[in-house]
């Protein structure tokens, strides 16, 4: 519930409702089931959001977004086997706006569909030509928002038929647990379709959501990514180490692959490798980087012939 007062917050009913709605928006952001009074601070935030959104629309229209690639490393084979495509938005002034700031904005409006589409196409083209060039089979992981996943109309359904195109590039779709909880019936249908067309499904930020574990057997899940917040505690907190160990054991039993996220140190990598975690991703392996740099990084990492 959002609450606004006459006459302090607005003098007419229409504006009053808009302001109550802004207050409600804040409640929803904090996890729903609560209430808030409207404040001036909310007005400032809302204006900022609005102008950022307009900027984002023009960035999308003018193709000012780009894609960075972060290596995914096979702990056993000790080599890069894939990458995650991450969108980047560089504003006119030269500063980067983090995706955590603009993706939620884009999700509200549906603009995220165009963004995800762009990332998907750009990354697919790049990685598949890189694979052709090198003869490798580097996999590509993309983040897919619920909006894109649940699109109904036919033209847009084409998005996933499009991604299965290159045969030399295994593609993984990363989704959050939230997607599975929101509409399980629909999720099952779409994920089965994706799976049938040869696309892998990976659960992002695993362990941070609020869904039950049963979805790991109910949905066609190929992998999950242990969230950075757990990896960060390796060597510091025994309880979190125990959780990682348990996640890995569970994955092994279910024959699900595991990617550890946010690996920043040798110690973390060793810990994960000792527990037979399949893949690592993080600054220790490589930061997200532009395409040309990723190509170089990959070529440099290959054993000399
Ligand atoms: P994510 O999918 O969990 O992506 C991993 C994030 O962790 C990335 O942040 C990456 O830069 C960061 N990261 C990787 N290794 C390390 C590390 O060792 N230490 C630390 N501290 N951070 C690390 P980024 O690029 O800022 O993206 C944030 C989130 O935005 C992503 O989280 C994802 O949820 C979303 N996102 C990014 N690109 C896209 C996209 O193209 N489409 C959609 N729908 N969402 C995207
Ligand atoms: Ca991800
Ligand atoms: Ca993640």
- Count, helices: 13
Shape: globular
Cofactors, ions and other ligands in the entry = ligand C2E, calcium ion
Secondary-structure element pattern, one letter each: EHEHEEEHHEHHEHHEHEHHEHEH
Largest sheet: 8 strands, mixed, barrel
What portion of the residues fall into strands of 2 or more residues? Answer: 15-25%
The stretches of 5 or more residues where confidence is low (pLDDT under 50) are none
Structural class: alpha/beta
Question: How would you describe this structure to a colleague?
Answer:
The protein is of the alpha/beta class. The protein contains 13 helices and eleven strands. Helix 9 (215-218) links the parallel strand 8 (200-206) and strand 9. The N and C termini lie far apart (65 Å). The site of one calcium ion has 4 residues, from loops.
Write a brief caption for the model.
The protein is an alpha/beta fold and 305 residues long.
Topology of helices and strands:
Layout: E1 2-3, H1 13-29, E2 36-37, H2 40-61, E3 65-74, E4 79-90, E5 96-97, H3 99-109, H4 111-134, E6 139-143, H5 146-149, H6 154-163, E7 171-176, H7 177-182, H8 184-196, E8 200-206, H9 215-218, E9 223-226, H10 228-231, H11 238-254, E10 257-260, H12 266-274, E11 279-280, H13 291-301
The structure holds ligand C2E and calcium ion (CA) (2 copies).
Key phrases:
two-stranded parallel ribbon, binds ligand C2E, eight-stranded mixed barrel, alpha/beta, 13 helices, 18% strand, globular, binds calcium ion, 305 residues
């Amino acid at each position: 519930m959002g609450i606004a007062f006459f006459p302090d917050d607005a003098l007419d009913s229409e504006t009053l409702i808009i302001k109550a709605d802004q207050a409600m928006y804040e409640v929803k952001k904090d996890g729903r089931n609560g209430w808030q009074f409207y404040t001036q601070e909310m007005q400032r935030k809302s204006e900022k959001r609005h102008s950022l959104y307009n900027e984002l629309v023009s960035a999308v229209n003018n193709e000012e977004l780009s894609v960075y690639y972060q290596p995914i490393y096979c702990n056993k084979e000790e080599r890069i086997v894939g990458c995650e495509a991450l969108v980047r938005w560089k504003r006119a002034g030269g500063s980067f706006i983090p995706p955590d700031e603009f993706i939620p904005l884009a999700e509200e409006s549906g603009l995220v569909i165009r963004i995800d589409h762009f990332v998907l196409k750009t990354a697919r083209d790049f990685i598949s030509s890189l694979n052709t060039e090198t003869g490798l089979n580097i996999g590509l992981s993309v983040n897919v928002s619920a909006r894109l996943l649940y699109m109904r109309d036919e033209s847009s359904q084409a998005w996933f038929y499009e991604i299965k195109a290159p045969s030399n590039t295994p593609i993984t779709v990363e989704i959050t647990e939230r997607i599975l909880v929101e509409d399980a019936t629909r999720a099952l249908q779409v994920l089965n379709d994706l799976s049938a067309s040869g696309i892998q499904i990976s659960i992002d930020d695993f362990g941070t959501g609020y869904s039950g574990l049963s979805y790991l057997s109910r949905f066609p899940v190929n992998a999950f990514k242990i969230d950075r917040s757990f990896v960060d505690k390796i060597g510091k907190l025994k309880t979190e180490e125990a959780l990682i160990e348990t996640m890995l054991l569970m994955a092994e039993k279910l024959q699900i692959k595991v990617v550890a996220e946010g690996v920043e140190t040798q110690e973390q990598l060793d810990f994960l490798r000792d527990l037979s975690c399949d893949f690592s991703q993080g600054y220790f392996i490589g930061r997200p980087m532009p395409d040309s740099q990723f190509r170089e990084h990959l070529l440099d990492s290959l054993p000399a012939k």
